[in-house]
Amino acid sequence: MWPPFGLLLFYYKMTILFYVSATGLTHIFKLKDYRPLTLPLGMILAILSLIVHPDYAHNDYYNKQIWLPYGGTYGIILPLVLLAVTSFRRNAKNKG
C-alpha cells in the first residue's frame, strides 16, 4: 500500500514544482500565459536529469556522500545563522 502512495505523492510534488516554475518564469518574462513555457521547460528538465545523475550508482553516491553535508549546511546551519543575526539586530535596535 505504501509504495504506490509514495509514488502518488512524488507525482503531485513534481507537478506542483513544475507548475510553480512555469508560472514563476512567466512572471519574470512578463508573459500572459504559462503554457508556452511548459514544453521548453520540460525538455530542459529532462536533459538536466540525465546530466546531473547519469546512472543509479552516481545517484546513490550523491545521496549518501554529498547531499548530507550540502543539505545540512543550507537546511540547518544557514537558517540558524540567519536567525541569530536577526535576533542580534532586533536586540541592538531595541537597545539603541
Topology:
Layout: H1 2-28, H2 38-52, H3 56-95
Explain this structure to me?
The chain has helices at 2-28, 38-52, 56-95. The chain is mostly helical. The chain is extended and about 55 Å long. The protein starts with a helix and ends with a helix. The model has no long low-confidence stretch (mean pLDDT 90).
Q: Which terms summarize this structure?
A:
single chain, 96 residues, mainly alpha, 0% strand, extended
Helix share bin: over 70%
Outline type: extended
State the low-pLDDT regions, or none: none
Helical stretch tally: 3
What radius of gyration results from the CA coordinates?
A: 20 Å
Mean pLDDT, rounded to whole units?
Answer: 90
Give the ordered list of helices and strands.
HHH
Determine the strand fraction and express it as a percent band: under 5%
Query: How would a crystallographer describe the biggest sheet?
Result: none
- In total, the number of strands is 0
Beginning-to-end CA distance, first to last residue: 59 Å
- Determine the structural class based on helices, strands and strand pairing: mainly alpha
